[in-house]
# Entry
Amino acid sequence: MAALPQYIFDSHTGFTAPPSPGWTFGEKVDETGEGRAWLEGDKAGWKFVEPEKEAPVNMYKLLVSGIVPRPIAFVSSESAIGVQNLAPFSWFNMVTFDPPTVSISILNSRGQQKDTTANIRATKQFVVNIISEPFIHQANATSIEAPEQVSEWVLSGLTQEASTFVKPPRVKESAFAMECELYDIIDIKHPGTGAANAALVLGLIKGIHVRKDVLNDKGLVDPFKLRSVSRMGDVTYARVGDAFRIARPGWAEGEEAMVRLGKA
Ligand SMILES: Cc1cc2nc3c(=O)[nH]c(=O)nc-3n(C[C@H](O)[C@H](O)[C@H](O)COP(=O)(O)O)c2cc1C
# Structure
């Protein structure tokens, strides 16, 4: 890989004001300099991609570069015969909070399910750990395609900590870890060939371990203390830089704006 500037650990600036603090309903993007510059990009023209006409590998590359940043589930699971497994998955998100559920999509590689999928099918249990900057190398190492009987834990240098409700251990170094039971697993079948190319795992969260030093005074996670890592395209990761807050508008404000805009 090309030489890049050194990593700066302490580069977070924290919370800033939003891009246009004075924005009101109906105000167009071209009303700010930044907005006008963004719209200039239109002059470069558009590329339209039809998945059915593309090689799957090109779809993979395009989608993982465009759907960013993605949170990463660092999944600890255990096989039916007790082999421990650890691997990162970025096709991951929260599904809902009541019941508290997460989703992880895992590819079947060359027609074969990955160890994580096989383990979750067999034991119906796993732990999703969130990765923080200080142990991204250890976490990345576990994405190695290791034989089934090999545990990535050894290569990673990470520490196992016993879970409370499930058999697979959590990652002790992770400041936010969710013990999950399998809620459902859905095979994602190709509409043309019928082949099950991926498994969508839905997990029901049974317990959450949160390290107290990453909490703010409201008892919630402070993103600048958690320092979580996300996935971008190719082999790129990203971290939380700045954060800004914009209140969700109430309908009273929207209704007023409709009158002002002459659309009421
Ligand atoms: C940051 C990162 C994110 C990844 N996300 C996914 C993913 O969402 N789905 C997937 O199938 N593989 C993903 N992979 C690849 C798996 O981690 C890799 O195939 C791993 O070896 C699977 O382990 P297992 O066979 O022990 O389950 C990702 C790899 C990295 C480094």
User: Anything to note?
Assistant: The domain at 50-260 is CATH 2.30.110.10 (Pnp Oxidase; Chain A). The first strand starts at residue 14 and ends at 16. The chain has a mean pLDDT of 95. The chain has one domain: 50-260.
